[in-house]
Specification:
Length: about 375
């Protein structure tokens, strides 16, 4: 196959951490290793933090602005004549295909397809989000449907993401899940045994929808039976200082480790249990990362998480701190269950290894460009 020049357009990218930056970064890397030329097109961000992995080619257009949406922080790009800037970039780079991540989302999900079509370039869109409802989609359904009809292919990362969009739009949806780097995220050579010093992990962006509050509220119930238990919170976000104040009564049993990217596998491998009390999700990349590291999980009972983890997690109702504590205590007491989850979870992660996922995406590209 003739090497393709591909633009991967994303509103979010490093140093912002999250599912979309992880997806786009790893897809770009895999495409490059397959002999193609991937360029990530995103906006300029004012953030602290670094990326440890060698970056793919990145072009930044416009400036990223943080807004509050869907239970957490989101980003939109602003700037003068963004469509024109993107069109010129697409022409200069001679892209064969533009792949938008966050289809129909403001800003790049709208302006990037228009710029690509002006330049005569086909557009593929991947939809990464789940949401209960959208006033904007309801009000602008007809013009957005016309735009969606012009896309050469429409991908959803899960049935949950597809179903959220299908409430408002029709399209020939294809489901291609997120991937995980199973070489970067891998198990420790030493098995964990959970006692006498249980180590719990919460990892993510500190914002309401990821619900660190429930994990903190569960800790007193856990400490009553396991007084040596420790919870490590990995991540950052605008709600961090508030959560640190909430955790103060718990003393040394909670540690805020801050922003982490390249060190994430170390945190997973050091943990006896990974806690993911997220309130809404379209997939769950951190679940794949935990399973790839052989870390047992307790997660929110969400359809998207059941699709990803299957039987390889303990599912607990959203927001019920006592139920979370009971789930932790039962799993800490069941070493056999943890060992089974470690082994089976790794098998699930291997089915989502990035080389296989990238080949599926490349199959869409071949069909579109043919």
């Amino acid at each position: 196959m003739t090497p393709l020049r591909i633009a991967l357009v994303a509103e979010d990218y490093y140093p912002q951490l999250g599912g979309v930056p992880e997806h786009v970064h790893n897809l770009a890397r895999e495409l490059d290793m397959l002999g193609h030329h991937a360029t990530i097109v995103t906006s300029r961000m004012r953030m602290h933090g670094t990326v440890d992995a060698p970056p793919p080619r990145v072009r930044r257009v416009g400036t990223s602005v943080v807004i509050y949406a869907n239970g957490g922080v989101a980003r939109v790009s602003v700037g003068w004549r963004l469509t024109t800037q993107l069109e010129q970039l697409f022409r200069n780079e001679r892209f064969d295909l533009v792949h938008v991540h966050g289809g129909l989302n403001p800003t790049f999900g709208i302006v990037a397809p228009r710029a690509a079509w002006r330049a005569g370039i086909p557009v593929v869109a991947t939809f990464h989000s789940w949401f209960p409802r959208s006033v904007g989609y309801r009000l602008w359904r007809r013009p957005l449907q016309k735009m969606l009809d012009r896309h050469a292919a429409t991908i959803a990362v899960s049935s949950a993401a597809r179903d959220a969009m299908a409430r408002y739009f029709t399209a020939p949806w294809e489901i291609i899940p997120n991937g995980v780097d199973t070489n970067f995220f891998r198990p420790s050579l030493m098995k964990r045994h959970g006692e006498p010093h249980p180590h719990l992990l919460w990892l993510g962006r500190i914002e309401p929808r990821n619900d660190l509050t429930t994990a903190l509220e569960a800790m007193p119930f856990i400490l009553a039976q396991y007084p040596a238990a420790r919870l490590t919170v990995v991540g950052d976000g605008p709600w961090r200082s508030r959560m640190e104040r909430t955790a103060r009564p718990l003393g040394d049993s909670v540690h805020f480790a801050g922003y982490a990217n390249g060190d994430r596998p170390l945190f997973y491998r050091a943990a006896d249990i990974y806690l993911c009390p997220t309130q809404r999700a379209s997939f769950g990349i951190t679940l794949l990362e935990a399973m790839a590291c052989g870390t047992p999980m307790i997660v929110s009972d969400l359809p998207a998480f059941r699709d990803v983890a299957g039987a390889n997690a303990v599912f607990v109702p959203v927001g019920n701190a006592e139920a979370w504590a009971q789930g932790v205590k039962r799993l800490l007491a069941d070493q056999q269950r943890r060992e089974t989850m470690m082994e089976e979870g790794r098998r699930v992660a291997e089915r989502h290894a990035w080389p296989a996922i990238a080949q599926r995406v490349l199959g869409v590209y071949k069909r579109v460009t043919a």
